Amino acid sequence: MPTYAITGASGQLGRLAVQQLLARGVTASEVVALVRTPSKADDLADRGVQVREADYSRPQTLRGALAGVDRLLLISSSEAGQRVAHHTNVIEAATTAGVSRILYTSMLDADDSTNPLADEHRATEQALREAGVAYTVLRNGWYTENYTDQLGQYLRTAEIVGAAGNGKISAATRQDYAAAAAAAALLQDEAGNRTYELGGPALNLTDLARVISEVTGTSVSYRDLPIEEYVSSLQEAGLDEDNARFVVALDASIAHGDLETNSRDLAQLLGRPTTPLADVVRAAQGADPRVGKIDLATIGLIGAGRIGTALATLAIGAGYDVVLSNSRGPETLSDLVEQLGPRARAARPADAAAAGDIVVVTVPLRAYEQIPAAPLAGKVVIDTNNYDPDRDEHIAELDDETTTASELLQAHLPTSHVVKALNTVYFEHLTTLSRQPSAPDRSAVPIAGNDDTAKKTVTTFLDAIGYDAYDVGPLEEGWRYQSGAITYPYGADGSFENPQPANAERLASLLAQAKRARDI
Which of 9, 189, 367, 484 is found 20 to 30 A from 439 (Cα to Cα)? Predict the structure, then answer.
């Protein structure tokens, strides 16, 4: 029997593909899950799947990992700008290892697409053609989850904003694409090379808004903006010009028709129709994808000072992987990473942002505009900042209290879900006050955010690292526990010298007495 390998098997699409192969009768021992961090695939190993270390950027890990593999599903790398190098490394290693067929998850209509993501997929397909190994190209359309992951935002604002015009999108779920990939891998009688154009029934963003309205009972509409107006809107919301134009280029590609297909390849591989959009919206409404992933999460840390180090220690103790970053470069964190152990690694801030399922921003507030926005799109971001004019220099809108520090960060990260938390605990007390869930002296920490689901995610994380969450409300209410607004909750008489637990009742009492700076 052939042996099947899947790269990126601990990621969303890769994990689903492994599960689909098993569901279709492939023996677990004949499935190889290729992952950068094997501990992230312990659940697959428990099912009998072979788990092997394989890092796209480290060719030396790939050659041995592909030994004995017959068919390889190459899941596209998530690192924009590095995909061609990553994919070429895998293709060369697979060719050397004698893999008989490579299946690659490319992009819909890659030959002619104007989408800014298409160039790397075209180059990878060319590398496949030149490799001399049989290949199958799975040109996936957009994920339906690209939109349903933002359902909470759509319902809060009652609109979807973009510049896609009436362009149609042949979207399908990750589950459908994974099932199609498994089906294609199992086609033993397929000779030569094959390219599939994969997508579901085409719809535009007005159609998406209509289905969301029908399913949820909340009226949502699509507001289409001219290109330059959308660019300006994104810049006003905090994106730099390059990132704003990248986002707009994605919508321009939709308007151009790049993400629409009439192909029936996906339904034919599935042997059934694709999952209806209404079902996906209904599932997202009942269980937002940002909740329920925390057990296997990676915590990204932008800032690795005293607070970042304490949180990394707690997160690793709770079983998370952490990716640390600072402004001085990953090489300056080598001693800290060695101290923290194998669950920690260092990276640049943009890479830590991309790697984290939850990302903690713990840098001086004056540097908030340097936080990379694009890789944080759609993610939960924990903001630990306090405003200190002596350190951060004066920020007019904070001095006159027309906004809060976390609202500034949220404006800079318009497509992220910022939750203010952990700014109230002195860094030395973070580890000493952590308690098990059943402990009678467990402390609570206040949280604030505009997205209820994001706050649930943060609550789950806080629980894992030893704290209860006390929900104060939306981000604008974060002023109530900004530095100076209340007495320090976790010290006798407000002192940092003698830490003591503070439960929800104590927090509620203190927060009710909070004073704005102008009233002190």
Answer: 484
Q: Label residues 110-134 b or e (16+ Cβ within 10 Å = b).
A: beebebbbbebbbbbbebbeebebb
Would 281 be classed as within a structural domain? no
H helix or E strand, kind and range, residue 213: helix 205-216
Question: Which residues does 512 contact at the CB level (< 8 Å), separation at least 6?
Answer: none
DSSP run (H or E) holding 159: strand 159-162
Q: Are 410 and 475 in contact (CB under 8 A)?
A: yes
Predicted model pTM? 0.59
* Residue 480 located in a structural domain: yes
Dihedral angle computed from the Cα positions of residues 483, 486, 488 and 489, in that order, rounded to the nearest 10 degrees: -130
In a domain, 498, yes or no: yes
381 - beta bridge partners? 359, 418
Q: Residue 413 sits in which domain range?
A: 294-519
Q: How many residues does the chain have?
A: 520
Distance of alpha carbon 335 from the chain centroid? 27
Residue 479 belongs to a domain with what CATH number?
3.40.50.720
d(CA 200, CA 191) in angstroms, rounded, equals 26
Vertex 59, ends 54 and 62: CA angle to 5°?
A: 35
Tell me if 307 is assigned to some domain.
yes
DSSP summary character for residue 165: T
196-251 tens-digit pLDDT: 999 999 999 999 999 999 988 889 999 999 999 999 887 775 567 887 898 899 99
Closest of 508, 455, 518 to residue 485, by C-alpha: 518
